[in-house]
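As the work plan foresaw, our protein records have gained a structure token line. A representative record is set out beneath this paragraph:
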Amino acid sequence: MATFDSARTSGDLDFRGRVVVVTGGARGIGRGISEAFLAAGADVVVCGRSDVAEDRLPVATGADGEARRAVFVAGDVREADQATAVMAFAVERFGRIDTLVNNAGGSPQVDAAVASPRFSASIVALNLLAPLYCAQAANTYLQQQEEGGSIVNISSVSGLRPSPGTAAYGAAKAGLISLTQSLAMEWAPRVRVNAVSAGLVATEAADEHYGGAEGMARIAATVPLRRFGTPTDVAGPCLFLASPLAAYVSGANLVTHGGGEWPPFLAEVGGPSDGGPR
């Protein structure tokens, strides 16, 4: 029986010589993911619909003391041809792709009763079809590499429970979890495909969505760990899933939500009014 080699674990999170593509990787959660891979030594390509000035791109200093900056390529990954072009750019620039992180996504809050067909289609395209298009394009290269590679899809707890106010988004994220499991089966053994379902994460978008600092503080009190997550909290699982430490992990959904959400009925039956015990 194989034994665990504890001497090698420090090297398993060393991504020097590896190339990582992070969609929507210049801001929010994506920026945190990009910076984590840069700090681990990877060459990182980020993409987005709008150009980003070089001095605004993610940058991080690795253990070797070298500062690394992400490379940007414009692309609307909701369009299959542009998703393909993003992956081609990464291969042309660095010669390979090792990990794709499908991070681009999101949705404003809109009541499902009044959401227009165009709006709903755009939300599903961004949160479900775009990851599929990017994964298909990346898989073409990953399958040709002897060591294969990995794909990490950033999903959401909205895909695991009701998502009132963002119904199309929740449905798309649920679809992304299912897609992850299907691709993991289809593209094995060379390519591993996993998901990270993020809970409440403090970003500029979250600040606007939840009513500023006061609103976020009230909501944070309902999380068992008593805080919102950070982009770094999501980046850590991405590093793990892309690393040799997760060599036998595929088709998984790593839920990253600070312990979950307290059931509202507890307050009605004498439970803590702030959402849970301290």
Q: What stands out?
A: The chain has a mean pLDDT of 91. The chain has eight helices and nine strands. Strands lie at 19-23, 43-48, 59-61, 67-69, 71-74, 99-102, 149-156, 191-198, 253-256. The longest strand covers residues 149-156.
